[in-house]
């Protein structure tokens, strides 16, 4: 918790004047030579957050430290940030608790951590607004347990997409339909607003219409269409066999991929 409070206080000029450690002071800063590597957040997958519920994901990382700096003398945590560096960023996501590390060798620690993502509408103290969806940089922080002014920031440890959760519906009609006749397929693509805790239509997005025969496990793409300004979908196709129609959205950097549950049509 203490390291989270330290990192949460870091923003803009405050970081540069109060927390950043000049090279001249490195000798007096026991964490100055602590380094991070192999940071993996959410198992390498995108982080997807719905309209209101908190999402907690795991992280793993490796810490290398001088042999004369003990494991118990500092705390560490991975950080997501936007901007040039961790210590100058005003947008920072950090877990509620410090990372937990175990000794691998005399100079290497293997660590795990949890990171919480809270939509603004949930009233969390580190809030995500919809404008924050997209690519974040990955960094890490080490803090001297005996002096919070001794901080080591490390930047450029990767990137992570933090995405708004999406939903997709489908309805194929008529049911049943005669072979060779027209099937009309409608649906709606929506995505979470972290600002209002609601879902809104996602307009002008490319979505695939797909079909799976009754006895098959594989969907085939029939065509690609775009949602209208309100996220609605409507197209037609020709009935050829019994099977399932669905829409499938590949996702964007800001919005998760999603496929609708197939709607079965009996062809007579």
TrEMBL record:
Keyword annotations of the record: Signal
Keyword Signal listed: yes
Annotated signal sequence range: 1-26
Protein name: Calcium-binding protein
Organism in which the protein naturally occurs: Streptomyces populi
């Amino acid at each position: 918790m203490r390291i989270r409070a330290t990192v949460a206080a870091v923003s803009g000029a405050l970081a540069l004047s109060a927390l950043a450690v000049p090279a001249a002071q490195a000798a007096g800063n026991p964490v100055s030579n602590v380094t991070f590597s192999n940071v993996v957040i959410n198992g390498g997958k995108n982080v997807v957050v719905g309209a209101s519920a908190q999402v907690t994901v795991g992280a793993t990382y490796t810490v290398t430290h001088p042999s004369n700096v003990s494991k118990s003398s500092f705390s560490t945590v991975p950080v997501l940030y936007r901007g040039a560096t961790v210590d100058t960023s005003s947008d920072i996501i950090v877990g509620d608790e410090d990372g937990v590390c175990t000794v691998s060798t005399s100079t290497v620690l293997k660590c795990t951590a949890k990171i919480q993502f809270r939509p603004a509408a949930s009233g969390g103290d580190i809030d995500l607004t919809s404008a924050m969806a997209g690519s974040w940089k990955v960094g890490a922080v080490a803090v001297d347990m005996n002096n919070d002014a001794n901080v080591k920031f490390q930047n450029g440890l990767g990137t992570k997409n933090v995405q708004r959760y999406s939903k997709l519906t489908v309805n194929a009609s008529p049911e049943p339909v005669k072979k060779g006749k027209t099937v009309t397929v409608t649906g709606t693509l929506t995505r979470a607003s972290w600002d209002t805790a609601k879902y809104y239509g996602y307009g002008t997005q490319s979505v695939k219409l797909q079909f799976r025969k009754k006895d098959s496990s594989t969907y085939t793409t029939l065509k690609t269409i775009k949602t209208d300004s309100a996220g609605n979908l409507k197209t037609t196709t020709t009935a050829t066999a019994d099977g399932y129609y669905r829409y499938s959205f590949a996702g964007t950097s800001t919005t998760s991929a999603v496929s609708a549950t197939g709607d079965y049509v009996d062809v007579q």
